[in-house]
């Protein structure tokens, strides 16, 4: 936070980020934390609005789909109403999910997408599409200064450990010594952007002259199986990969074309996946209280347990056979 800026952060009960990170700002004279649901009107005086509200992990946004739609539609209307009243510039974090299961690869901003309007993911992807429409309608009708970022899969330290998205799942599983759950078929691809690159991209978009939409993401593309192998190699080579059932409408491929971000914002990501994963691992280990050498202890513990179980089985066998 820069000294001359006053920052207001609004969170609600849906907030799944790390609350510890906010704690250090509480009490700072230029910081205000407000608990508020964006589906209700908000009265504050601000110059810029980063409208990030909405659960982003599929398991969270599908948990209460009607609320997800409300957050994207009513929440965005409220934030636009606020921006209009106080003359603030507003940035919406939209998503690569507006491209649905894309038939164009990589995805440019001009692509209109391939979205199932009645599927279980629609509350989020159609919700964000309406949010983009509302942004442009307020821009055209009321001259509002708008910015739209289409975020591609972002990861990094301080993610909720139980967020449910693939990177945090694999890292937590590798640290805990559990199988990495690759959802079938495992050939689906994603492009993962490290959080500091993302934040840099969003600030550049807000401060620049372009409305967007602009893709902000890392074009490095990986299959989920490749991601699992990379996590294994970097974090815990002993964990197995387990293929599990997938959820409906999972996009088969996703990779941003970032030509616009490069040309209009002078932005491109700096952190490659292999450098970003260990930074996230460090933070996850601290929060899970599993130091690096714990893996050895854990394996020994599991091994001893197995021996103990077998001893019990041998004992039971003795009881049965001798009965
Ligand atoms: O950033 C984006 O562009 C979008 O990506 C995510 O959607 P998704 O890519 O489906 O996120 P994940 O749940 O992390 O899934 C990624 C892939 O990993 C797979 N996966 C997920 C979890 C897991 O344990 N194992 C696994 O193989 C899924 O089947 C999927 O193919 C989020 O839902 C959106 O909020 C976000 O806008």
Automatic annotation (TrEMBL):
Q: Which InterPro entries match?
A: NAD(P)-bd_dom (IPR016040), NAD(P)-bd_dom_sf (IPR036291), UXS-like (IPR044516)
Q: Which EC number(s) does UniProt give?
A: 4.1.1.35
Q: Name one Pfam family in it.
A: GDP_Man_Dehyd
Major localization class: cytoplasm
Q: What catalytic reaction does the record list?
A: UDP-alpha-D-glucuronate + H(+) = UDP-alpha-D-xylose + CO2
Q: Per UniProt, which keywords does this protein have?
A: Cytoplasm, Decarboxylase, Lyase, NAD
Query: Origin, by domain of life?
Result: Eukaryota
Which residue ranges does the record assign to the NAD(P)-binding domain?
A: 6-278
Concerning its family, UniProt says:
Belongs to the NAD(P)-dependent epimerase/dehydratase family. UDP-glucuronic acid decarboxylase subfamily.
What is this protein called in UniProt?
Answer: UDP-glucuronate decarboxylase
